[in-house]
Each structure stands twice: as structure tokens, then as C-alpha cells.
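Format notes (please read before filing issues)

Several people have asked whether sequences and C-alpha cells are stored in separate files. They are not. Every record keeps both together, in the order shown below: the sequence lines, then the C-alpha cell lines. Line labels are part of the format and must not be stripped during preprocessing.
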Amino acid sequence: MKQEINLYQPILRKRKKVFSARALLQASAAVAVGLLSFYGYGLWQVQSLQGELAGLEGQRDVASRRLAQLSAELRPNEKKSRLLEDEVERLSRELEVRHKVRALLTSGAYGNQGGFSEYLAGLARQRVDGLWLTGVEISEGRKDVGISGSALSPELLPMFVQRLAEESAFAGTRFETVRMVRPEADVSRVDFELRTSTGEG
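Then the structure lines:
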């Protein structure tokens, strides 16, 4: 006798185990705890970054204030620096011109070494602050020398004459005429004229 068994009948199929409510609850709780952990970690990172950001912003504000302060301090110094640079440049040009004049005077190109150049070189060497020359006359035979100029103070003229006496070109020379006048147009200076002769009388 044969008996057929139908394995495809629903009643004979192996039943799948379905998660129980407890298992689902535990899984949900585990997922929730995981999410909360990620959220807490993310929140901690955000707060940490916000603290760093606040610190950096504070440093930036301090640096900005310091930069503004330094800029304010340097602005006048830039003007002073520019004025100093201009003054140095002007004095360098003046020094270069004086070197050229001295080189020309000592070279003999404008007369022999015993001629006018000795006088002019001596005048150039014996410079007195506050006194300037406006004219120099030297006769061809070097018998007569005339010097005219101006000074901010009358006391500077004797100092100038004394310094000239130290120059070999003026050795043995006498000033016959010394004239000093304070011009009415500008009483802050004194105009002078010196005339000298090496001959008798």
C-alpha cells in the first residue's frame, strides 16, 4: 500500500521563526543607544570646534587691534623716514658737488697751484656755519683779494677771518678794509665785505 505525502502542503512546511516583540524592542533600544552615542559625540565635537573658533576669533580681534595700532604708529614714522631719505639724498648730492669742485680746484684746471685755486680751495675748506659768501674777487697778480658775503651773527666774521689765516694761500695777507652792514630789508643777517692787499700802503 502506497501513501503519498505532499510536502508542499502549508501545514507541512517548516515555519520561519519571527522575531519576538522582546527581540525587536532590544534591537530598537540598541539602535537608539547607538544613534544617541553618535549624536552625543557629534554634539561634543561641535562644542569643541565652537570653543576653538571663539578662541581663534579672539586672537584675530587682538591681532587686528594690534595691526591698527602699529599702522597708526608707523604712519608718522613713514613721513619722518621719507623726510630723512630726502635730506640724505640732498646732502649726498651737495657732498658730491663739493667733491667735484674741490677736485677741479686742486687739479689746476682753473689756474696753476699757486694761482686762484689755492684761494678758492682755502675758502672752501674754512667753512663756518651761519656764514656764506656771495662774491670773491682775486686780482691776476694775487695782490688784491675781495670777499663779500653774509652772516647770521656779526661774531661769525672774526671766526671766519681767523680760520682763513690758517690757510697757506692767505698767509701774510692783510685785510685793509672790513665793512659790515645790517640791511634794512632783512635785519636777521649782516652783510660784510673784506678787502686785502699784500703790498705796502
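For reference, the curators noted about this record: Helices lie at 21-107, 116-125, 156-165. Confidence is low (pLDDT under 50) at residues 109-113.
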